[in-house]
Structure formats: C-alpha cells, structure tokens
Write a structure and sequence with these properties.
The protein is α/β, with parallel strands linked by helices and 230 residues long. It has 2 domains: 9-20 and 108-228, HAD superfamily/HAD-like (Rossmann fold); 21-102, Putative phosphatase, domain 2 (DNA polymerase, domain 1), CATH 1.10.150. The protein is built from 9 helices and 6 strands; from the N terminus they run βαααααβαβααβαββ. It has helices at 21-35, 42-61, 67-82, 88-102, 112-120, 133-142, 155-158, 165-175, 189-197, and strands at 9-12, 124-129, 151-154, 182-186, 202-206, 218-220. α1 packs across α4 and α3 crosses α4. The radius of gyration is 18 Å and the shape is elongated. The model has no long low-confidence stretch (mean pLDDT 95). It comes from Olleya namhaensis. Pfam families: HAD_2.
Length: 230
C-alpha cells in the first residue's frame, strides 16, 4: 500500500476513533443508574440506547436538535422503548450526571497509544470533534491523550459540526495547515470521511462500524494499520 506523500498534519476524530465511547458510556450508565436507583437492565437499555443515540447525533449534526434536546431525548426515548418508567426529574439528573462522569472512564481502542507515539515523531497531530468542548477536553486529559495533540477543534468552538466544511477549515486554520499537506482519520463515513473529502482533505476511515468499504477510500480495521498509509 503506497504511503501518503507530503502529509505534515494528521487530524483525528476522538469518539469511536481513539476513545472507546461505547465501553466508557456503558460504564458511566452502570455508575449513574446505581447512583439514582434506576433498576433497568443495563444490557437491554444499551441495546435500545446505542441506535437512538446515533440517531440524535445525526439530528444534532444536521442542526435539527439542540444540545439540550439531544441529552434529554436520547434518554427519554430509550426508557420509553424499554417500557421502563422514569420520572422526568430523574432523566434530567441522569442526563447531567452522564456528561459529568463520562470522562471518569478512560478506555481507548487497542493500538491507540502505539499509533500516536509512532505518528507524533513524524507529524503534527490534531483533533476535530463534534463532541461537546468541555467533555472532550476532560476525555483527552483522563485518558492521557491530550499531550499528543497541538490543537483541538470542537463543534462548539467552530460554530458548526462535521461534515460542514467550515469546521474543517477552522481546524486547518488553527493548525496553520492546508488540505494538500493534511489528512483526516475518523470512524463516521458521512461526518469524518465525506466531510473531509468534500473540501479536498484526504481521509482514512477507521472502520469501527463495519460499513461496506468503498473504492478509492482508505479503510483500516485496526489503528495500527494506519502505518500502511503514514
């Protein structure tokens, strides 16, 4: 596999790319359910929550729901689907505590530190994330990832979300980088990969979601496979 030439800057997504969102999220729900005496089956809850959460993040990317709507409605809709009654006040407390405690858990994907150690000696590394600024900052610190990255661009700091071209341009400007000497690595085909490619920024898809691979798109199934390209 030919190496990608002229790359100086590598931009990473965070959740589902480096930071193991699903594992950390499950541990957070386990903790806050105990805290608030919510006796729902965690396994059943997560089976409903994960697709509902992805749906709300897409709505959030498309500017169709607010941050507050996302945080509350993904829980309310999950409990409704589970047919498990939870008072509104408790849902609001769960919503707040989920954000508060999520970054207390710091699992990352296999190969994360190794690939970042490898890339850090060759490139300037950056983050572009649709996650909330404060939460993402805490995740980077708790998982000891923060020192790898020179800039962190969040949707809140850019004023728009991936795949909007403005967030990529904002990140490039912050990093003093250009599309021709940069590459984006992320898990979300629409937000990370197509968003980057649409502005002429090369991209590698970390195929966490096992989507069907597309011709002319760089895919990796393990983070260390990035070495094939960089």
């Amino acid at each position: 596999m030919p190496k990608t030439n002229k790359v100086e800057h590598v931009f990473f997504d965070l959740d589902h790319t480096l930071w193991d969102f699903d594992k950390n999220s499950a541990l957070t729900f386990e903790f806050i359910f105990k805290k608030h005496d919510v006796n729902a089956s965690l396994t059943d809850f997560l089976s409903f929550y994960e697709p509902i959460n992805l749906k709300y993040w897409k709505l959030y990317r498309d500017e169709k729901v607010t941050k507050e709507d996302l945080r509350y409605n993904r829980l309310k809709e999950t409990f409704d689907a589970l047919q498990f009654t939870v008072e509104d006040q408790i849902i609001h407390h769960l919503s707040e505590d989920y954000i508060t405690f999520l970054s207390s858990f710091n699992h990352v994907y296999d190969g994360t530190y190794q690939i970042l150690d490898y890339l850090k000696t060759k490139y300037k590394l950056h983050i572009i994330t649709n996650g909330f600024k404060e939460a993402q900052t805490n995740k980077l610190k708790s998982s000891k990832l923060d020192h790898y990255f020179e800039t962190v661009t969040s949707a809140e700091s850019a004023g728009v979300k991936k795949p909007n071209p403005q967030i990529f341009n904002h990140a490039l400007n912050s990093a003093k980088a250009e599309t021709k000497n940069s590459i984006m690595i992320g898990d979300n085909y629409e937000a990370d990969i197509l968003g980057a490619l649409n502005i002429g920024l090369d991209a590698i898809c970390f195929n966490y979601h096992n989507v069907q691979e597309q011709p002319d798109i760089k895919f990796v199934n393990h983070l260390l496979d990035i070495k094939k390209y960089l």
